[in-house]
Input
Amino acid sequence: MATAQAPSRQELVQRARDLGPVLSKHALWSEENRRLHDDVVAGISGAGLTRLRVPARYGGYESDTRTVVEVIAELGRADGSAAWSTAIWQISGWIAGLFPDAVQDEFHAVPDVRVCGILSPSAVAVPAEGGVVVNGTWAFNSAALHSQWDTNAALLRHPDGSMEPVMTAIPLSDLEIVDDWYTSGLRGSGSVSTTARDVFVPAERVLRMSEVLRERYSSELNAAIPLFRGPLLPTACATISGVTLGLAWGARDAFFERLPGRGITYTDHSSRQQAQLTHLQVAEAVLRVDEAEFHAFRAADLVDAKNADGSPWSAEERARVRGDMGRVGRLVKEAVDIFSSASGGTSIYQTVPIQRIERDVRVVNQHAIMHPDTNAELYGRILCGLEPNTHYI
Output
């Protein structure tokens, strides 16, 4: 396929910003129906925002991490579930670029393909002639309802009984959807479970996780593309931070939109905007948002800088990206809590975005790889000269 010059960061971010009204319009529908509205998915794909991590030979943009984070944050400003789904498509789309080139041809046989995936190896694969047979269930399979492929981890059982984590690429049409996504937040992401029952996966669609975590990738054509040089976890963690940052921007927007003309009930403050209490609250909240931007963009810029010069990653740098991601989550939660508590009793209605944002932020911070305490502990452990206590670094 002939390649054209990719849109600039400014243009892609503006495309995401222009989608805001569509995302906002359907946010309540997506939440109530536990899946993204079709118009939202069509808007994201139509704007080319599923191509950010796609190689240019397939019509992709090969966007850098900072661009991806800013795009996702703009989507999160309008709807956390849309941003989360898009982030998953960016991360899993990047993982798709690690597979052999012939497998990538399979992925991109579908125009604007959407790939989702799960890193937790909660299924079992057993060797079979020409590949493996997979059985098991993956929970929290975000964006599966609107994706064509799943890059899911499994444990490969060897003849001697030992188990090895692998990454598999499976068409969603080969999996069963388990409609179990009844949650308090990120409801529109449709993060259902998927089940494999005796699914055959050809050997070329199986990657050894030990190789992936050492940056030993299978694609020959992508080897020279800076985007595909980086390690999995820093790339994924920097990317997903855009969701949390966008939720902070959305909370800030929602608060200030409702501020004028409102008082503080059962007080003599006829104007919340004039109250000193409000001034203190918004200053504390906005400063936390500013600090979250620093950490999100620092992580993204580090990934881009390392990809550009090809220099090796230290354990401290890897852990710092996870630390930045956790810090974004903590700061945004604190900021949103302040905005929410300062929004008054009417903010609890479903039609007021701040209550949904607050629930979405809480769910983001509960994610195993994003939990602020887990990431702070890991970063501190490395700073103290100890070995990491996880392979996911």
Summary: The radius of gyration is 21 Å. The CA atoms of residues 35 and 349 lie 20 Å apart.
